[in-house]
Amino acid sequence: MLNLLKNKLYSVISLTVLLLSVMFPAHALFVSPPKEPLPLIHEIFPQATLVSEKEGDPLIWTIYENDEIIGYAFETNDIARIPAYSGEPVNMLVAISPKGVYLGAKVLEHHEPIILAGIPESKLHNFTDQYDESLKVSDRLKVGGNKRDGITHIDGLSGATVTVMVMNVAITKAATKVARSLGIISKSETIKQPIATVLPEVYEPSTWQTLVGDGSIRRLYLDRKTVDEAFVGTEAEHIEEATTEQKNDMFADIYFAQVDIPNIGRNLLGDSEYQWLKDTLQPNEHAVIILGNGYSFKGSGYVRGGIFDRIQVLQNETAIAFRDLDHTRVNDILIDGAPVFKEMALFIVRSHHEFNPGTTWQLELLVRRQIGAIDSTFTSFKGSYDTLDKYVYRPPYIAPEPELTLTQQVWEDKSLEVTILFILLAILLVVLFLQDIIVRHPTFMHNFRHLFLIVTVVFIGWSWGGQLSIVNVFTFLQAFMSDFSWDLFLLDPVIFILWGAAAVTMILWGRAVYCGWLCPFGALQELINVFARYIKIPQFELPWAVHERLWAIKYLILLALFGLSMESLATAEQFAEIEPFKTTFLLKFDREWPFIIYAVGLLVINIFNRKFFCRYLCPLGAALSTSNSIRLFSWLRRRPECGQPCKTCAKECEIQAINPDGVINMRECHYCLDCQVTYFNEEKCPPLKKLARKKNQFKENQIEVVDVG
After folding, report:
1. pLDDT, averaged across the chain
2. Does residue 306 contact residue 324 with C-beta atoms inside 8 Å?
3. What is the DSSP string of 234-285?
4. What is the signed CA dihedral for 204, 209, 211, 214, rounded to 10 degrees?
5. Using one digit for the tens of pLDDT, what is the confidence trace for 533-549?
6. CA nearest 582: which of 155, 10, 173, 20?
7. Which GO terms describe its cellular component (predicted)?
8. Which end of the chain has fewer surrounding CB within 10 Å, N or C?
């Protein structure tokens, strides 16, 4: 009879594994073969006529349409190999335009267990499809999380948060490195100067020589030799070239200044014209005066409604061009000692340019030479301007907050969950340390435990995805045997903290605490079984001889998976689907039907037999139980009578973790403390009841002493 029952159970397990291996669609169970990048490049660039070899540092493909470069493509593994959840990076093909705009991203290869056997690859491709022309390489991109200024948010992938966050970092890091190497973007400033304020009261009558001498007015002087040298090597090298005698002649002599500064504007324009200028300027607008001889900074080709194409103001990465509405002709300057200028003009820098009077700016003069009836070529010359300290108030420099690493971002976004989890763990530790007191109050103890299990299921399991898995163990072992890095494990704060809690409690009390209190699937099973018992559903318990032999199954499963992981971690991850954790909590039953049937089947069995999966099939429980030999404390109390003759606790232990001789098997115990409630209950524990009867008999037989004095 026992052998028959044992064979049937083995048949059920074998059939389950077979269903998952054979009936489950191949796209979800097996690793997709690596994709060739070139067809995907042509898919992103259908107009491409030539794709170069992958070359350079960093390695990139250059894509051409005829002779024009229309984009660049690269693999993230060549530039930013960042391990994802599986410990291996997700390799992606990324394409950007010559202007630094994302044109596409495609997954070439991955080893992610959640995606391999949980989420169809179409959802993974939907995530990478977000890297399109709406995003720039210079954008700060973040997957989900708390919204912040200056950050563009992209949608994550439910059930694979860590994976897509790593993918985002790999894409943006690689794209930034490529764009910088190509000169598409420059390195960002490490320190930012807040907008300075022009001081309105700083003024003293000054001469032209004084303002030029102290740098209030700056000069850009060009002789013809300097201009000719700038065109050497161009098609216009000998066009309009100066003779030897003309080389030292003046080509352009330009003076420029920020004229809305009172000491400059009032001295140059006079009080009434300066006041007119101040009344004209809108908030955050500024004015520049340009005075010139020689080469015209306005140009003869300027037309009304157009742009002054020979001058612009440069500040940081902003180029400010001027239109006719920004321009006012200056008829005269009133300062003593000024030269006579052929051209004098005011130009308004509008507020949308966010011009900062406290930061260095340049006046750029463009010199153009015709090389045909239509074509021309040009070169430019720059003069730098630094506003004197006495003219402006500069707020202190702001050093931007260093950009958080991916790990820091994840922990910051999960700060609420981390805080709550630490509080829960602290409460659990208090209960464990005070267990001898708490178990003397059975009603409170049972209500507290059921409430804690509900929190474990709802928050740790379904809300936070904090279900440990045997896959975590294999990933740790693989990392330990290769290039170990804590970053891989810190990417999921809840999982990391739970593993830390499991490690601490295993050393102190063995595997029992995690399995009995912190495992979401174990908690879900227990709550279902508690309700089933409450509504009087009959329970089925296996005979002890069968029960203790079935314990071996989970250890055999653990050994098999461990052996597979040594050969191929990806294969071990696939067969680790013997755990229903991913289906139940990470994907919330949103996956293919064989997995749903398997997980639901285990929960249905649990209605009649508490924690069937935990007792007989769980490879994680088997792995954790190996720590039993190193646990430091044995706080579960027993009496000499336990087992012989008293078997009350053994009968009440709903997972049958108490041997017939009364010894608690800590490899199988889940630390529910029910046996300790009975141990201290004088109305339930037979040895205590017997002791109480003896005390009562002693009191009844006690002879009262009579005082006859």
Report:
1. 84
2. yes
3. STTTTTTPPPGGGTTSEEEEEEEEETTSHHHHHHHH-HHHHHHHHHHPPTT-
4. -110
5. 999 999 998 998 899 89
6. 20
7. plasma membrane
8. C
Q: How far apart are CA 424 and CA 497, in angstroms?
A: 11
In whole angstroms, what is the distance from residue 699 CA to residue 149 CA? 79
Q: What is the pLDDT of residue 302?
A: 59
DSSP-assigned letter for residue 541: -
Token pair recorded at residue 607: 């209605």
Give pTM, 2 decimals.
Answer: 0.61
Q: Number of helices (H) and strands (E) in the chain: give both, helices first.
A: 29, 18
Instruction: Choose the weakest-confidence range: 155-164, 382-391, 564-573, 629-638.
Output: 155-164
- Tens-digit pLDDT profile for residues 85-96: 666 788 999 999
Higher-confidence position of 201 and 403 = 201
d(CA 118, CA 106): 20
In sequence order, what are the residues at sequence separation of 6 or more whose Cβ sits closer than 8 angstroms to the Cβ of residue 173? Answer: 79, 80, 82
d(CA 145, CA 417): 13
Least confident of 27-31, 67-71, 360-364, 408-412: 27-31
Residue 185 vs residues 95, 98, 100, 189: alpha-carbon distances, Å? 15, 10, 7, 12
Angle between helices 121-128 and 161-181 (to 10 degrees): 40
pLDDT in tens, 285-334: 999 999 999 999 987 655 565 678 788 899 986 788 888 889 999 999 99
Q: Cβ-count burial of 380 within 10 angstroms (0-12 exposed, 13-18 middle, 19+ buried)? A: middle
- Rounded to whole angstroms, the Cα distance separating 423 from 426 reads 5
Q: Which helix (H) or strand (E) holds 75?
A: strand 68-75
